[in-house]
Amino acid sequence: MVVVIFNFALESTPNTVNLIVPGILWVSIMFGAMVGFNRMLLAETEGGAFHGLLASPVGRDVIFFGKVLSNVMFLIVIELILVPILIVLFNVTLSPLNMLWISLPALFGISLCGMLFATISMNMRAKEVMLPILFLPVVVPIILGAVESTHSIMNGGNLDQNLRWIALMIVFDVIYGVLGPASFTMIVED
């Protein structure tokens, strides 16, 4: 729906399409991610499933990474739906292999960061408002890297020209892959 609204709202000439489509793609994925994070934790906390998970004999870090992987799968499905719609509506070409190298670190970074901040905001009164406030400023490096890499690929660039953006996303993933489980453990024990 977001992509269709962008298609009608923005004047897409051949010169501007390659400028706007990467942003539309990644903004749409971010929107879907935030809705997904909120819905997932809301369903788990209201039903008591989250406390059941914490009572299980599984380590907190395993729970964290399990949630991250489920979010990555959810975001992959969103992207698999969005990319063909973008190709049809905006008449663009995206190399699937190049998009894979961009999407994997981006989606893992979004999921790592999103899971952490969704957990932080789940016990707050205005959790639906707090997640974007906490999450969006922190995930800017991932979005910047994903948008710039996608833009380059759409304009005929190759992965070698995007290594710095991909490296930025991987560094972000490593940082949150280390800090995330430790922080998650402290948050859920309170």
TrEMBL record:
Q: Which Pfam families match?
A: CcmB
Localization terms from the record: Membrane
Name of the protein described by the UniProt record: ABC-2 type transporter domain-containing protein
Which GO molecular-function terms appear in the entry?
A: heme transmembrane transporter activity
Membrane-spanning intervals of the chain: 20-41, 62-87, 99-117, 129-147, 167-188
Q: Which family does it belong to?
A: Belongs to the CcmB/CycW/HelB family.
Q: Does the keyword Membrane apply?
A: yes
InterPro entries in the record, alphabetically? Cyt_c_biogenesis_CcmB
Keywords annotated in UniProt:
Cytochrome c-type biogenesis, Membrane, Transmembrane, Transmembrane helix, Transport
GO BP terms: namely: cytochrome c biosynthetic process; cytochrome complex assembly
Provide the membrane topology annotation. Multi-pass membrane protein
Q: Give the source lineage, highest ranks first.
A: unclassified sequences, metagenomes, ecological metagenomes
Q: Which GO terms describe its cellular component?
A: plasma membrane
